Amino acid sequence: MDAHSRGRADDIDPADQWVLNPQTGNYELRLNHSAGESSSPSRTATATEGTGRRGDSRAGTREREGAPDGPRREVPGQRSRRSSQGGRGAAEPPMSGHRRKRKTKKSRKKKALLWSGGVMAFVVVGTSLGAYLLYEKLNGNIDAIDVGDAGNKDVVPDGPMNILIIGTDKRTGKGNEGYGDNGSVGHADTNILFHVSEDRTNATAMSIPRDLMTEIPECEAKQPDGTSTVIPGTPKERFNTSLGQNGRDPGCTMKTVETITGVKPDHFMMVDFNAVKELTTAVGGVKVCMAKPIDDPKSHLKLPQGESKVQGEDALALLRTRDSFGNRSDLDRIKVQQQFLGSMIREMKSSDTLTNPKKLYKLADAATKALTVDTAIGDAKKLMTLAQEISKVDTKNITFLTMPVIDNPAEPKPVTVVVDPVKGEQLFAMLRADTSLTEVKQKEKAAKGKQAALLKGPKAEPADVRVDVLNGGEIPGAAGATVTWLQNEQGVLKSANKANAPEKIKKTTLEYAPNQADQARALAAMMGLPAAAMKQGAADAEGLEAMVLTLGADFKGAGQPITGPAKAPEGVEQASADKAVCAK
């Protein structure tokens, strides 16, 4: 596409035509591009004043959508194209010195570029999770794949949100042939399950090792010719082959993550090698810190000790190298990738980026070209909505960690890993229960207070607890299994299976009367019910009336606490996105 077709005639960047007027607080269109001459209010037209011109080029009034409440600052979009007759569009200064009259808007006006300053850009593998400036012009940049029932049809789920970030090792693109297998179909090389809490106060980014040996379930995948193929599952295979191998698509990787963790991804975002180079260049480089000088002959990476900035080819080399860090394993490379991702998130949320229209424009273009997503979020407006939700999380409350693993016991000299059977399940339970891994003090204090108040007071003996159990969750037979567990393991003999609830519910609830509070406390302690699950009625129960326990989608099995562990398992390293760490 040439410069004119992107609104960039005469080597003038679209974003460079706008300046911030300190007197009004608005971005204004610079009409005089003479060297060394700055714009003044008398020589500019504000972004809310546009004129249209008939012809091959169409100039539309700049529109702003999705802006937060409060003072409005109009942010620039692109300059209109020159017409085929050689005339200029709305950005042309008046020939006579007076302002042209505003023309009536056409019914098929050009959609203006829409900026949303403050929304965290979200791209992967050394890119960050989200998007900044998603506007309709960029729709054509975004590739989308239909993953069927592997994802969520809702853009923003009602509750916690889980996004699977996939970085492929596909070598397409100039200069990428030298990285490993240049014939790769694109496997799941770098993987992060990004869990955003229901209240949007915190997020957990859990890296999944590509060399994890796991079950890859049967999945239905779209093929390049548009047909769908059911691909058989395999009991023991490397995680990275959940994509690309045997025609598997990102939906297969999503189903594999769900099989391992019990957490269903709502959406996926995927990028390749080119994305790393383009995004790091668009943002102006990413700060990194090395504990020692790096001179890697394999990746050709050379970095000094201490802080420096990387972009383009150097950024990709940093994310790909194994030999320069730790014990040269993929697990140590994951740590460097997490540190890099945290740094890029900080850069994208910095004032240097958010107040720089030129940088925002380049980042928006690069980000949308880099992303492949599921069809549920496959256009600019939907991605904008998703990004706004993600941006609510403060950087200090984004925690990076790696899935707990151990060496594969089936290999004499292990080169692969398997999930740690104890620590892994503890962490997965925390994600399923939406338990924060960050220092969100107010939330923690409130939760502890409610839980303490709930359990304070006398508890009934198990033999005196009466409860009817209904299944409103996703596990078939959960009510019966729970009653069996309560009777055989806990001594709650007066429990009854009432089969399926009238409708599905997301959260487990326990309804009880004021005079059943001691029974409710006893049952909550047995089952690990959170304070939010307790629903006390107004009237006392009569006679042998039982409490009503309705299992929701958060119920994962009899004997598994719904609240999840209170903290991350011991020995699992964590890093915060707001803190810079030197790679070792």
Describe this structure in words.
The chain is of the alpha/beta class. Strand 1 (18-21) and strand 2 form a beta hairpin. It has helices at 250-261, 273-282, 313-320, 330-348, 351-354, 357-370, 380-390, 423-432, 441-455, 478-490, 517-527, and strands at 18-21, 26-30, 44-46, 143-145, 161-168, 188-196, 203-207, 213-216, 219-222, 228-231, 234-238, 267-271, 286-290, 294-296, 301-303, 306-310, 372-374, 398-402, 405-407, 417-419, 466-471, 494-500, 509-512, 534-536, 547-551, 574-576. Helix 2 packs across helix 3 (313-320). It is elongated. Residues 1-19, 27-134 and 175-181 have low confidence and may be disordered. The protein has an eight-stranded mixed β-sheet with strand order 4-17-12-5-6-7-18-26, sandwiched between helices. It has a five-stranded mixed β-sheet with strand order 22-21-25-23-24, with helices on one face. Strands 1-2-3 form a three-stranded antiparallel β-sheet, with no helix packed on it. The relative contact order is 0.12. The two termini are 43 Å apart.
Major sheet: size, sense and barrel closure? 8 strands, mixed
Biggest sheet, spatial arrangement of strands: 4-17-12-5-6-7-18-26
| Helical fraction | 10-25%
**Number of discrete helical segments:** 11
Short descriptors:
alpha/beta, 5-stranded mixed beta sheet, 584 residues, 8-stranded mixed beta sheet, 26 strands, 22% helix, single chain, disordered N terminus
Itemize the secondary structure elements and their pairings.
Blueprint: E1 18-21, E2 26-30, E3 44-46, E4 143-145, E5 161-168, E6 188-196, E7 203-207, E8 213-216, E9 219-222, E10 228-231, E11 234-238, H1 250-261, E12 267-271, H2 273-282, E13 286-290, E14 294-296, E15 301-303, E16 306-310, H3 313-320, H4 330-348, H5 351-354, H6 357-370, E17 372-374, H7 380-390, E18 398-402, E19 405-407, E20 417-419, H8 423-432, H9 441-455, E21 466-471, H10 478-490, E22 494-500, E23 509-512, H11 517-527, E24 534-536, E25 547-551, E26 574-576
Parallel strand pairs: 4-17, 5-12, 7-18, 21-22, 21-25, 23-24
Antiparallel strand pairs: 1-2, 2-3, 5-6, 6-7, 8-11, 9-10, 12-17, 13-16, 14-15, 18-26, 19-20, 23-25
